[in-house]
Queue: 3 jobs
Job 1
Amino acid sequence: MTRRWIALAMVSALMMGTAAAQERPDGSTGDSRSYPNRAVRIIVPFPPGGPTDILTRVLGQRMSEVWGQPVMIENQPGANTAIAAARVAKMPPDGYTLFAVMDVTMVLNPITASNLSYDPLKDFAPITLASKNTSLLNVRADDGPKTVKELIARAKANPGKLNYGAGIITTRLAGYLFNREAGLDVQYIPFNGSAPTVQGLLTGTVDYIIDGAATSLPLIQSGKLRALAKLNSRPLPALPEVRPLAVEAGIPALDDISTWIGLVAPAGTPRSIVDKIQREVVKMYADPVIAGKLEKSGISAVSSTPEEFDAFVRKELDRWDRVFKDSGIKLN
């Protein structure tokens, strides 16, 4: 009798242990069938209004509609996205905190920053690439040059007097390359994200900017800003007349400089949950309404598997590490 009770107690303990391992303090589990059963939060490491924020809000709204749970967007800018990245890296890997990352988060920060407070390859579980955005060289429409050649001529006629702005390391690096290859002596003015960068151009703080198309597109279409060129050769349906900067400036080194956005979760997030989120993004992008909404905002929707996204990040790390070292560019 005693042995029987001991055996039953052992079985009961094992069952309780298994349940405890599967069930989390909030009552959720790592099983995607019960996910999500409460609000999901997506951290955006930029102020509201930029390409990452615009895209994330579109995704969040559709996820909320499909899942029947709130999907909240939380903006936390600072330190070229590093503040938000370090915070998300320490979050519980339960799928209830997601992170909208950019090339600056996963590639440029590791290359250019010392003592980085997170590891992009170890601290995050890749979910999907979300977009490849086109950056534009923009000026004010009322008093800015009408062509890239005119901008170069104006800068050379006034050495050290023109200012340019960018909101992230990627576009700042692109600006350095443009100025160096064109032989321009200009001053760099830093901004904290796309929206402030565009505002700086509108108010006259800077004379030209390099920034993602999404933020400046409405102002270009309303006639307040002028896009002189795009920084890659991919089609941009919203601005079909804008040509590549490499062609306009006659500088091949300026071809295919793009910003991109992806979605990740804290490392250790169950693969079943990662896959469920990834499948939802793929479904969204197959919807002409969603695709059209993003396209009108100047955002080129792109999805991938987690493995494809991981491989893409590693390839970009290798590419930009070589470019950064070869260029001799020094970032503050």
Job 2
Amino acid sequence: MPRDRASTTARILDAAQTLIARDGVAAAGINAVAEAAGVDKVLLYRYFGGRTQLLRALARERAVWPALEVPAAADGDATLAGDVAALLLALARALRENPLARRAAAWQLAERDEFAREISAARAAQMRAIAAALRARHRVPPFLDLDAILAVLAGAAVHAALQGAAPPAGGELDLRRNDDWLRAERALRRTVEALLGAPEG
């Protein structure tokens, strides 16, 4: 019955999502997911084909990478620096608040399997779309390598979000604390303004 299959599929994805958010991607093995979902692992193979396909389905259907859009311009006063800063802060905050997305981002940085490639492809497509939207809205000087700047600063935002889930190694901000997180946000905004804050006229 289609309804039963849809319900079981959702339960399996829920179980995989919970395991990954709590223990990391490596914890989402076939046996562990089947047990957490309360289903026979045969059903998992039948519906998904295997672990790789399950993780790919999870990457497509759940928030393993935050959705970002160029913010709407308020009264036509948007600047390139303001838009880039808003996007990067939205990315960092979304990762900070979503354990599944954080675990997926960490996996994508460390591994080269199908799940990591799925996340990388989504992230790359999103950055290309954002760069195109920024160029359409702003007068970006030809000497400014916007794609590279976005890649480097997005990497910093991702690192901040990942670091915010772990104790500091020493001598650095404790990004689990809200006051240190806000310091990091201000630093990121000022960095963007220093790089991109020149007038667009």
Job 3
Amino acid sequence: MADLKQLARQIFHETLAAIDIPATMQRKLRRAGTRLLCDGKIFDLREFDKLRVVAIGKAAHAMVDGLALVLAPFVRFEGVVSAPTAPRMPLPGMKYFLGGHPIPNERSWKAAEAVLALLKNSDEKTLVFFLLSGGGSALMELPLERSLTLEDVQQINHALVTCGASIEEMNALRKHVSAVKGGRLAVAAGRATKLSLAVTDVPAGNESALASGPTLPDPTRVAYVDAILEKYDLLKKLPSRLRQWIESRKMPETPKFDHPCFANAHFLLLLGMDDLFHPAHHAVEAKGCVACCDNSTDDWPVDLAAEFLLEQLENLRRENPGRRVALIADGEVSSPVMGDGIGGRNSAFVLACVERIAGKKIAVLSAGTDGIDGNSPAAGAVADGETLEMARAIGLDPADAFRRSDAFTLFERLDELIVTGPTGNNLRDLRILIAEP
């Protein structure tokens, strides 16, 4: 069964290699002289005195490089980049910040201040490119209630990422307490023409959750935030200054669809769910598997997602007797932190499968396309029908590791981790389940 694990690893790495952000940027943005063609719209660069760039997220460097290739050699721009890694080749005119993720750091705060300073005095002669990708919520942050400190902001984010809330729920609260999220960067850019380009790690149709929607109208309202606070008993976990601000009903609504700042704003999805499924599906079929894609488990609790996807895999195997089959799933499962161990939702998903696949000719891989899984240095993990026996043979208990949120330690001992380092991308998590006949 080691072959099945290796096969799953190969499919994951081939999928990552097929996602090329600069090439996608050049394909979807075309320049003819001074005219920029984007999603059926034409922007004449001669009409603008200032070109500004705000790049936030794990794919920020690749997106900036892609934009530079589109505009070169005639156009130079100024801007701000906040990413979790340093650029390989900094571009002139750009200010770079090593923001924190998943918890904002001082550079996340400084990046937000730099972005607001960049956008100040933008007018109708200004064209702003907003390059957005996953992780932006932590990599750029500044509280709306200015009495809050960086430590307060870090406490807020820690409370959110460990409570079990969905991305939509977490970002609804983030938007309402932030000076740079939930459409507020669009407000800050005033009368400028705004072009937002996105590499998304959120479900289709929910793009305003990407990086907490800094340039898009926010469909959520304060009443929804109140419901989230109650649902996860979050209020007592928030900083006292923020708790007082919320309880005093000072939280304003975020900018909605009818706000004038969106009159000259445009949004283009560069890469999304299909751009992850297509290369994964191709890689699976090239290995001789009957393949099926399933994204129905997005935001499901990790145990329920594991049970459902394994059931789908068994159905696929029954429908294709004598054939090796593979189920490909994307999205993010919900995996609340229950202990003080090391790991994330991807390794937790694989761990939730270990007992279910014991003794079967099945391999399960789950990994983040950004190369990061929770608080671990891995992207995820891979296991097969022999993993449970191997773990118990060296005194490890998968059920106990799951309860302590310590999947990384178990899979590290078994040499079943997926380690890539930061990939410079962030579409979604990818799960690959393979079964022999």
